[in-house]
């Protein structure tokens, strides 16, 4: 019998130190048959018998008869003889036992009949304190009895040595064992306990007649009053306990649950889940590092005992004593804020409907929340914001229009006045208040009350007045203990707006946050998408600081562009001069004496000496790389010069030839044409300016933005699914490949993202990097690295083919076959025909569209050859907000499909097939 | 000289360098007559034996909600800082196993953390390419978060590792994905020197780890994705003192041997190696043959205070305890009872060598100590 119990051990939680586990190791070896239920026989033997015992004679000295049966356990043959003898010799045996105990200083028991058996075991235990296996076995055998032991035995604490011995045993091996038995034990615990107590009692009395050893006198002091109390408490507990977790171990009343030392008066810390109490010495071992506050290690992750909710986050003296201030603060913070300790939303019913997590979050984070939300049934009047317990008058006016719970019921507050407010029959107290407030309530009217207190009769248009308008009304309300609107109550519009920006508790944020990784090589436009997302979905896309930085950056950029222009001007000037010289030398014969000197130095590209010096200065700073250091700061000084320069014909001429300046990015003209405005000190960049600007987002390679998609349109019927959807937050993480090496060690950090958006600039097909590789091929290589990275195994990828606008324009001039990857691109329709018949053939795709589809298919084939899965593709024009919006919404759809796939995996493949195809065609 | 000519010359020069490197390698191979294990065996040394109960898990630090990526001990007072995927740094009191600080980071993608020698501040770095310093004594803000007291920005790639220069709270060395290591002055927030980079003879790929010599804090080694480890003198930024070849994969982690004359490395090629900084030789390879073809990467290593034991965490969840002398695995911490449920991602030995802390992808940290020496709590 015993070894089977021992097998259970490995399942014990890791609350003990390694030493104990080493014992467990030895028991893993034998084949684990998962015979856990075998513990039941013990119960069976215990329950019925014990229950009977407790009823039978208490005061009678003839205790033996009812008590004997439990010991007649079928498997304890070893002791049967002894036990059989006991009934008759009970008193003497006790005495004999006492002597024996004192002889070998092993203080086992007083509990009469059981004593010999227990003592035998115990002696063995303490003797072989090193042979782990036997100890464990023994321990599990006597498991049930130990509970008796503890209850009867603890008063003999004064006998120092022996009780210590016992405790040390408890310490080492009892606990895990009990842990394993706990589930079984808990069922019959009270009754078995009762029996043991009674036994003790009887024993006590029987002893009293014969001789009173010291031990017994000690016991008297405490036991008599203690016993009844404990008994009743146990019964009470037994009722509640079925719902909540039971402590794994339990000593006698008032002692520590782990070391079984101490009494009711020693200070103890209580587990907020199972109500286990631990003393000073044990609390740290039993509760570990308290990641969820004061819970036993085994209770971590379980919901707390609701009756202890009030005490959450309130420090006890004990913690303060042996932990420092910082540690205590961390524990209490964890206790208050961790997810497992939060009020389970289903415990709160609003208008007869249990809440879900999101609804509870709405309720708790609204500007005017109901205070101290406790589990229970509530009613909530969404129009006026009235809030109260079900069947009672309103207790508070909270923020109105929260989408929480079901529709309000007429009998929500159990009124019988036949006067209705917003469809709820009001209570007498309210009616009284209305009367005192001067509201006409004759004829059982039905009122419609808004959150500002204005009321009208149902079916009518004009407001009849304001309930809380008069100063006296508030006084009346106070007297009748009815709520009045708080001053801070916001209008509904405001509360809706704050929906997106309000702070969400950490644990909820974790739950609802969907991460999207946006990767792209430099120049792919991923930054633009990121900026677009910020502008699209954030109320304040860029903070003051950011704007200031962006402004400086733009101004620096403009100086940079200007520098490039000046460089170009110099080149053109020289070219022009050389041309002229050549022209002159060929026509050398004709002397142009007067003007030749002038013409020699002047042409359209020449500038005056002052501008020339500025130009040289600018170019010099640019070469030395100090542009950022000097320029934006010195703008005030140079702005007039720049103005002059820009207006100068030489620059204008150069600007007209800007297509020849390779360095000058295409966006430069956007800024240069507004150069005066931008270089003003009070210049404030518009969103569009920011969108066009290069290198403005916190450019260390990584940036992220949290957002949620705004609800499509307010007048649309919002069903609850959509409502929850708006709570879903997305985090767009932009990573630039530049800062991160080729081998992508950093990708591991993103294993928790929901999907990856890979961004490729379509217009790259004819671009070459510094070392002569086609940029499209570079992108392809990068794409291959990312999609085959082990971190992204089974990850969904959305390929965004960016810069479609540039691409469409470019494809007319430069053939797609410029990139060798696309050399088999042979569009069916000749460009010539599409161009000529552009208005007549509407459904013939343009070459741009054809090429886009061609590239998309190329990537899809590549992807499926690498991973065997489908690639989602979308196209995008980075500068058009709608285009970015739809691409990101597409990403959201993919994430949703993922969830669906989890639910309906069988039907998904078809679904996804259509979706991808449709999307790539529909755009 | 035209571009084509230049390219030609460059190619030729590269060829020469490679040839020389190859010859150097062969020469080293010739000179390498034995390794540590061979010599120890010839001297009749026998490997250590470890029972399953000799190394006990005596604390479990729970509190992170994501994988633990990095940890560091204070030199004294038994405190630990750990960085996790959940975007938090937690400072632990290892004795009581309680948290003293939980720092929510502005950038959640943290890769490394370090405790300052005086224990007054912690540093962390990650994908934001910055090293952030938090003073543990500063006041928390309204939301209970500790404000950043200094950011060291200048890296152009992620910060993969950081370590304070021993005995001074004002200098820190970071390694980064931009192929450089940087010595920072924390008081000014500026770079004191940059090791490697474009124009210098530095690493040619991401630097993943640094370790500062405990006995001579001017010397440090760095390990990189270019499969080399380099030894640097922090006063001489211009070039590496020595480059150690040998690994066939990214060098994920480097750690100085306690005596300061050797250092250990762990790599994607599944080996740990021991190098001598004076001779530049490789002293020993620690490699455990696996049945299947998958070679697990070494993700983190730590030496015991005597140097006899090398703790190495592998990507497949193993954590071997090597006998450095005989190159034998004496224990696998990953499969010991009571060990982590996830793989061990980082390791650290307390300064007095009495305890080992392991961080794991199961979000917990565990503290291990030799059985029998200490009674817990």
Automatic annotation (TrEMBL), chain A:
<feature type="binding site">
    <location>
        <position position="699"/>
    </location>
    <ligand>
        <name>Mg(2+)</name>
    </ligand>
</feature>
<keyword id="KW-0460">Magnesium</keyword>
<keyword id="KW-0863">Zinc-finger</keyword>
<protein>
    <submittedName>
        <fullName>Extra-large guanine nucleotide-binding protein 1</fullName>
    </submittedName>
</protein>
<dbReference type="InterPro" id="IPR011025">
    <property type="entry name" value="GproteinA_insert"/>
</dbReference>
<keyword id="KW-0547">Nucleotide-binding</keyword>
<feature type="compositionally biased region" description="Basic and acidic residues">
    <location>
        <begin position="148"/>
        <end position="159"/>
    </location>
</feature>
<keyword id="KW-0862">Zinc</keyword>
<dbReference type="GO" id="GO:0007186">
    <property type="term" value="P:G protein-coupled receptor signaling pathway"/>
</dbReference>
<dbReference type="GO" id="GO:0005525">
    <property type="term" value="F:GTP binding"/>
</dbReference>
<feature type="binding site">
    <location>
        <begin position="802"/>
        <end position="805"/>
    </location>
    <ligand>
        <name>GTP</name>
    </ligand>
</feature>
<comment type="similarity">
    <text>Belongs to the G-alpha family. XLG subfamily.</text>
</comment>
<dbReference type="GO" id="GO:0005634">
    <property type="term" value="C:nucleus"/>
</dbReference>
<keyword id="KW-0479">Metal-binding</keyword>
<dbReference type="Pfam" id="PF00503">
    <property type="entry name" value="G-alpha"/>
</dbReference>
<keyword id="KW-0342">GTP-binding</keyword>
<dbReference type="InterPro" id="IPR053057">
    <property type="entry name" value="XLG_GTP-binding"/>
</dbReference>
<feature type="binding site">
    <location>
        <position position="527"/>
    </location>
    <ligand>
        <name>Mg(2+)</name>
    </ligand>
</feature>
<dbReference type="GO" id="GO:0003924">
    <property type="term" value="F:GTPase activity"/>
</dbReference>
<keyword id="KW-0106">Calcium</keyword>
<feature type="region of interest" description="Disordered">
    <location>
        <begin position="148"/>
        <end position="172"/>
    </location>
</feature>
<keyword id="KW-0539">Nucleus</keyword>
Automatic annotation (TrEMBL), chain B:
<dbReference type="GO" id="GO:0005886">
    <property type="term" value="C:plasma membrane"/>
</dbReference>
<feature type="repeat" description="WD">
    <location>
        <begin position="200"/>
        <end position="242"/>
    </location>
</feature>
<feature type="repeat" description="WD">
    <location>
        <begin position="152"/>
        <end position="194"/>
    </location>
</feature>
<dbReference type="InterPro" id="IPR016346">
    <property type="entry name" value="G-protein_beta_1-5"/>
</dbReference>
<protein>
    <submittedName>
        <fullName>Guanine nucleotide-binding protein subunit beta</fullName>
    </submittedName>
</protein>
<dbReference type="GO" id="GO:0007165">
    <property type="term" value="P:signal transduction"/>
</dbReference>
<keyword id="KW-0853">WD repeat</keyword>
<feature type="repeat" description="WD">
    <location>
        <begin position="61"/>
        <end position="102"/>
    </location>
</feature>
<keyword id="KW-0677">Repeat</keyword>
<dbReference type="InterPro" id="IPR001632">
    <property type="entry name" value="WD40_G-protein_beta-like"/>
</dbReference>
<comment type="similarity">
    <text>Belongs to the WD repeat G protein beta family.</text>
</comment>
<dbReference type="Pfam" id="PF25391">
    <property type="entry name" value="WD40_Gbeta"/>
</dbReference>
<dbReference type="InterPro" id="IPR015943">
    <property type="entry name" value="WD40/YVTN_repeat-like_dom_sf"/>
</dbReference>
<keyword id="KW-0175">Coiled coil</keyword>
<feature type="coiled-coil region">
    <location>
        <begin position="3"/>
        <end position="30"/>
    </location>
</feature>
<dbReference type="InterPro" id="IPR036322">
    <property type="entry name" value="WD40_repeat_dom_sf"/>
</dbReference>
<feature type="repeat" description="WD">
    <location>
        <begin position="337"/>
        <end position="368"/>
    </location>
</feature>
<dbReference type="InterPro" id="IPR020472">
    <property type="entry name" value="WD40_PAC1"/>
</dbReference>
<keyword id="KW-0807">Transducer</keyword>
<dbReference type="InterPro" id="IPR001680">
    <property type="entry name" value="WD40_rpt"/>
</dbReference>
<feature type="repeat" description="WD">
    <location>
        <begin position="244"/>
        <end position="285"/>
    </location>
</feature>
<dbReference type="InterPro" id="IPR019775">
    <property type="entry name" value="WD40_repeat_CS"/>
</dbReference>
């Amino acid at each position: 019998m015993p070894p089977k119990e021992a097998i259970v051990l490995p399942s014990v939680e890791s609350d003990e130190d390694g030493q104990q586990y080493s014992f467990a190791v030895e028991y893993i070896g034998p084949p684990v048959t998962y015979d856990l239920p075998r513990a039941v026989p013990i119960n069976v033997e215990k329950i019925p018998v014990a229950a009977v015992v407790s009823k039978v004679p208490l005061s009678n000295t003839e205790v033996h008869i009812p008590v004997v049966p439990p010991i007649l356990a079928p498997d304890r043959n070893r002791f049967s003889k002894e036990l059989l003898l006991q009934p008759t010799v009970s008193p003497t045996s006790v005495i004999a036992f006492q002597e024996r105990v004192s002889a070998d200083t092993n203080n086992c028991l007083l509990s009469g009949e059981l004593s010999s058996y227990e003592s035998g075991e115990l002696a063995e235990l303490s003797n072989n304190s090193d042979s782990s296996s036997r100890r464990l076995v023994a321990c599990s055998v006597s498991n049930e009895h130990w509970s008796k032991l503890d209850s009867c035995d603890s008063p003999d604490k004064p006998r120092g040595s022996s009780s210590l011995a016992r405790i040390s045993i408890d310490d080492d091996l009892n606990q895990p064992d009990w842990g394993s038995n706990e589930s079984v034990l808990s069922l019959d615990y009270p009754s078995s306990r009762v029996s043991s107590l009674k036994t003790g009692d009887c024993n006590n009395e029987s002893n009293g007649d014969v001789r009173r050893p010291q031990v017994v006198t000690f016991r008297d002091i405490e036991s008599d009053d203690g016993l009844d109390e404990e008994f009743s408490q146990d019964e009470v507990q037994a009722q509640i306990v079925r719902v909540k977790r039971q402590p794994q171990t339990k000593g006698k009343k008032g002692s520590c649950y782990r070391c079984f030392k101490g009494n009711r008066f020693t200070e103890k810390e209580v587990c907020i889940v199972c109500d286990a109490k631990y003393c000073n010495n044990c609390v740290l071992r039993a509760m570990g590092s308290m990641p969820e506050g004061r819970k036993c290690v085994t209770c971590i992750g379980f919901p707390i005992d609701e009756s202890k909710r009030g005490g959450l986050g309130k420090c006890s003296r004990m913690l303060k004593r042996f932990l420092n201030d910082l540690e205590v603060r961390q524990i209490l913070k964890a206790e208050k804020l961790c997810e497992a300790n939060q009020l389970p939303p289903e415990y709160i019913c609003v208008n007869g409907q249990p809440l879900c997590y999101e609804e509870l979050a709405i309720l708790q984070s609204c500007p005017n929340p109901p205070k101290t939300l406790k589990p229970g049934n509530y009613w909530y009047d969404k129009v006026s914001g009235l809030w109260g317990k079900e069947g009672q008058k309103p207790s508070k006016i909270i923020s109105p229009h929260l989408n929480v719970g079901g529709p309000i019921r007429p009998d929500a507050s159990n009124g019988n006045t036949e006067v209705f407010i917003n469809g709820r029959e009001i209570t007498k107290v309210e009616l009284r208040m209305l009367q005192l407030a001067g509201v006409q309530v004759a004829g059982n009217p039905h009122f419609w009350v808004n959150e500002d207190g204005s009321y009208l009769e149902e079916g009518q248009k004009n407001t009849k007045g304001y309930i809380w308008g008069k100063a006296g009304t508030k006084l009346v309300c106070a007297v009748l203990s009815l709520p009045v609107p708080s001053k801070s109550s916001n209008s509904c519009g405001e509360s809706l707006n704050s929906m997106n920006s309000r702070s969400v508790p950490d644990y909820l944020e974790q739950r609802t946050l969907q991460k999207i990784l946006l990767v792209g090589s430099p120049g792919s436009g991923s930054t633009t998408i990121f900026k677009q997302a910020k502008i699209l979905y954030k109320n304040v896309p860029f903070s003051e600081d950011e704007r200031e930085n962006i402004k400086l950056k733009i101004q620096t950029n403009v100086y940079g562009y200007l520098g490039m222009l000046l460089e170009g001007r110099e080149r053109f000037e020289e070219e022009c001069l050389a041309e002229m010289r050549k022209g002159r030398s060929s026509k050398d014969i004709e002397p142009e004496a007067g003007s030749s000197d002038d013409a020699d130095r002047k042409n359209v590209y020449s500038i005056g000496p002052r501008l020339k010096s500025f130009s040289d200065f600018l170019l010099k700073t640019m070469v030395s790389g100090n542009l950022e250091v000097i320029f934006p700061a010195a703008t005030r000084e140079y702005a007039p010069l720049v103005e002059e320069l820009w207006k100068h014909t030489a620059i204008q001429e150069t600007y007209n030839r800007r297509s020849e300046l390779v360095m000058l990015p295409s966006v430069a003209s956007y800024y240069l044409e507004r150069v005066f405005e931008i270089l003003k000190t009070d210049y404030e960049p518009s969103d569009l300016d920011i969108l066009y600007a290069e290198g403005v987002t916190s450019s260390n390679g990584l940036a992220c933005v949290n957002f949620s998609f705004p609800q499509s349109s307010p007048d649309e019927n919002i069903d609850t699914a959509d409502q929850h959807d708006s709570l879903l937050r997305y985090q767009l993480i932009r990573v630039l490949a530049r800062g991160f090496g080729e081998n992508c060690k950093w990708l591991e950090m993103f294993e928790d993202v929901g999907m990856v958006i890979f961004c490729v600039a379509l217009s790259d097909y004819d671009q070459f990097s510094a070392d002569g590789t086609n940029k499209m091929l570079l992108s392809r290589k990068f794409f291959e690295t990312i999609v085959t990275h082990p971190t992204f195994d089974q990850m969904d990828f959305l390929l965004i083919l960016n810069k479609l606008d540039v691409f469409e324009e470019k494809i007319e001039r430069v053939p797609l076959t410029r990139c060798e990857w696309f050399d088999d691109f042979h569009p069916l329709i000749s460009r010539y025909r599409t161009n000529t018949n552009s208005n007549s053939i509407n459904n013939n795709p343009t070459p741009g569209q054809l090429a886009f589809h061609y590239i998309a298919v190329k990537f899809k084939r590549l992807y499926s050859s690498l991973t065997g899965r489908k690639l989602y593709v979308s196209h995008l024009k980075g500068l058009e907000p709608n285009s970015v919006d739809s691409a990101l919404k597409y990403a959201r759809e993919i994430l949703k499909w993922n969830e669906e796939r989890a639910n309906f995996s069988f039907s998904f493949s078809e679904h996804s097939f259509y979706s991808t195809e449709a999307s790539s065609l529909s755009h | 000289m035209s571009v084509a000519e230049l390219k030609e010359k460059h190619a030729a020069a590269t060829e020469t360098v490679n040839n020389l490197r190859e010859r150097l390698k062969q020469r080293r191979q010739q000179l390498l007559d034995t390794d540590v294990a061979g010599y120890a065996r010839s001297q009749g040394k026998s490997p250590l034996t470890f029972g399953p109960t000799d190394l006990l898990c005596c604390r479990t630090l729970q509190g992170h909600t994501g994988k633990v990526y990095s940890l560091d001990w204070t030199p004294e007072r038994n405190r630990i800082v750990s960085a996790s995927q959940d975007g938090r740094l937690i400072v632990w009191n290892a004795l009581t196993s309680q948290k003293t600080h939980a720092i929510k980071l502005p950038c959640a993608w943290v890769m490394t953390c370090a405790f300052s020698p005086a224990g007054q501040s912690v540093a962390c770095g990650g994908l934001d390419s910055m090293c952030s310093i938090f003073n543990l004594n500063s006041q928390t803000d309204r939301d209970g978060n500790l404000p950043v007291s200094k950011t060291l920005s200048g890296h152009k790639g992620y910060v993969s590792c950081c370590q304070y220069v021993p005995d001074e709270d004002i200098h820190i060395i970071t390694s980064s994905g931009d192929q450089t290591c940087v010595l920072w002055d924390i008081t000014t927030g500026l770079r004191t020197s940059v090791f490697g980079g474009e124009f210098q003879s530095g690493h040619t790929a991401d630097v993943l780890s640094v370790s500062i010599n405990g006995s001579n804090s001017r010397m440090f080694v760095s390990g990189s994705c270019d499969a080399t480890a380099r030894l640097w003198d922090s006063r001489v930024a211009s070039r590496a003192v020595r480059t150690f070849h040998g690994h066939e994969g990214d060098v994920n982690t480097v750690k100085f041997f306690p005596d300061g004359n050797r250092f250990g490395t762990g790599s994607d090629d599944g080996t740990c190696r021991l190098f001598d900084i004076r001779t530049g030789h490789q002293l020993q390879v620690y490699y455990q043959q696996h049945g299947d073809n998958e070679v697990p990467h070494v993700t983190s290593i730590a030496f015991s205070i005597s140097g006899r034991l090398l703790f190495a965490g592998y990507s497949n969840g193993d954590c071997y305890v090597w006998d450095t002398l005989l190159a034998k695995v004496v224990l696998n911490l990953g499969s010991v009872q009571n060990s982590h449920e996830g793989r061990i991602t980082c390791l650290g030995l307390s300064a007095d060598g009495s305890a080992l802390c392991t961080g794991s992808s199961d979000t917990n940290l565990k503290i291990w100590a030799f059985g029998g020496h200490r009674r817990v709590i």
